[in-house]
Design goal:
The protein is mostly helical. It has one domain. It has 7 helices and no strands.
Length: 226
């Protein structure tokens, strides 16, 4: 039985990944702006979420929304990419669900700032995504060799995903037993963890932009042409 794949979606998928890259750049810019505004929280010792608290907290709140949008857009585009390459997305569901949780959680964090009565909810959400997302990205990275068009990015994606898991273990585990070190450097390692998660999406998205046209396997191209 011949497998036919609709490659007409390639331009749309490319546009979606372009948007992902653009929003990631916007995230970095807004994060830097929020960091530069009063009350000048320390990026070394204090959590990124505190940037959403204070007179200019709305900048980081908007950035949480931005993070949710580009993460969910990445997820949507990635599922389309898998379908175009003849893959069943359900074989990647752990990693995809983890990214979905990360994206939805970012939207929720915008409504539950890390202060007052919402601090507990904010903390629970943060712990869940900081555990699930690095593991999800690692799971996806280990399976990239199944998709011919993504095999070339597997090593880089896997390296970033492994770093993300190590940052997660250190941030949520090791630092717990180093209270003085944690008080001085927890913000830095949280940013390393967040940065690795977003960097993984960024490198995947950027790589795909140059390889969308090669998504069809040779046998699928022949079947589609016939």
């Amino acid at each position: 039985m011949s497998i036919t794949t609709d490659n007409s979606k390639s331009p749309t998928v490319r546009q979606e990944f372009v948007a992902v890259d653009a929003l990631i750049i916007l995230y970095i810019v807004l994060d830097a702006i929020a960091q530069s505004l009063p009350p000048h929280y320390s990026p070394i010792s204090q959590a990124e979420s505190l940037l959403a608290v204070g007179p200019y907290g709305y900048v980081m709140t908007v950035n949480f929304l931005n993070r949710g949008v580009f993460s969910l857009l990445f997820l949507y585009a990635f599922v389309q990419l898998l379908t175009m390459s003849g893959e069943n997305w359900r074989n990647y569901k752990f990693g995809l669900y983890a990214i979905a949780i990360w994206g939805v959680a970012a939207l929720l964090l915008a409504g539950f700032p890390a202060t007052g009565s919402t601090l507990g909810i904010h903390t629970i959400i943060a712990i869940i995504i900081f555990i699930a997302t690095p593991l999800g990205e690692l799971s996806l990275s280990l399976k990239l060799s199944r998709v011919k068009a993504l095999a070339g990015v597997r090593k880089a994606a896997l390296a970033i995903a492994v770093l993300g898991v190590l940052f997660m273990v250190f941030y949520l585990g090791v630092l717990t037993f180093l209270p003085h070190f944690k008080s001085d450097y927890s913000g830095l390692f949280e940013r390393f963890l967040i940065g690795s998660i977003i960097a993984w999406m960024g490198i995947m998205s950027t790589y795909v932009l140059g390889h969308v046209n090669s998504l069809l396997r040779p046998e699928q191209k022949g079947a589609a042409a016939s």
